[in-house]
Write a structure and sequence with these properties.
The relative contact order is 0.14. The protein has four helices and 16 strands. By secondary structure, it is mainly β.
Length: 257
């Protein structure tokens, strides 16, 4: 049984209680202006309650319902998370409905797991859908919802890696006011997701430019208008250096506790 704050904003594992009672030097951690304690390897788990509203007056009342999003982050103190509960809640309505009540866990973090694309692929192997979040050296935050498993993809008729994924994918960017703009699939092409291990890069979107591309051992990237998502560049100058990169996946049902 996890400890849950009555406002249903976050959950902590039992190790939090033992850290407070049994440890002499716990790590101080401030969250929503309240002080609590966490050991270095404790998990920080956010739980978000969201009320869905019908898009028009003719929608069935059954569509207007509550659901919970849960964000599971191992090593949250030693390696802070980019996908905050606030960001996840703002992205939730853009996710497929089947994922809106799933537990999301951090599968890859460049600060914790290193910058190898091969290692990233291994860690993300269990997940068919992922949320990718990037922070630049200038503090800009943006990313993508990816609907295909991260792996090189080739068709039977092609000898090179090609695009895959589907129209549920999207790009997003946070502005200076922490508002989030989502750029959905335009339907103009199917260049949703690309994984090129030999070139050491992954990308989202195409035709015109990549909507988002990360390359050179996840050290830098580029973003521009692409027909796939009809998005503007996610950062003003289009080029950026990567300070942090994280990938999250919905926790497999057989691992839910």
């Amino acid at each position: 049984m996890r400890m849950m704050k009555t406002s249903n904003i976050w959950l902590f594992p039992p190790s939090l209680i033992s850290a407070v009672k049994e440890r002499n030097t716990p790590t101080a951690f401030f969250y929503n202006s309240e002080k609590t304690t966490l050991e270095k390897n404790d998990e920080l788990i956010f739980s978000i309650s969201i009320k869905t509203e019908p898009e028009d007056e003719n929608d069935d009342e059954e569509e207007n319902e509550d659901y919970n999003l849960v964000l599971r982050v191992p090593d949250a103190v030693s390696c802070p998370t980019l996908l905050t509960y606030d960001l996840l809640s703002k992205l939730s309505s853009s996710l497929p409905r089947s994922l809106q009540s799933r537990t999301w866990e951090r599968s890859f973090c460049i600060a914790r797991d290193g910058d190898s694309i091969q290692h990233m692929l291994r860690l993300c192997q269990p997940y068919h859908q992922t949320l990718l979040v990037v922070q630049t050296t200038k503090g800009q935050v943006f990313g993508a919802f990816c609907t295909g498993k991260w792996q090189p993809f080739r068709t039977k008729t092609q000898n090179c890696n090609t695009y895959y994924g589907n129209g549920q994918s999207f790009l997003f960017a946070c502005d200076d006011n922490d508002d989030v703009e989502v750029y959905r699939w335009s339907g103009k092409n199917h260049y949703c997701q690309l994984c090129q291990v030999e070139q050491n890069r992954i990308a989202m979107g195409g035709e015109g430019d990549f909507g988002l591309i990360l390359e050179d051992n996840f050290s830098k990237g580029r973003t521009g208008y692409c027909a796939t998502y009809s998005n503007p560049p996610l950062v003003e100058d289009g080029h950026f250096e990567i300070a942090a990169l994280e990938i999250y996946g919905p926790r497999p049902f057989n691992l839910l506790s």
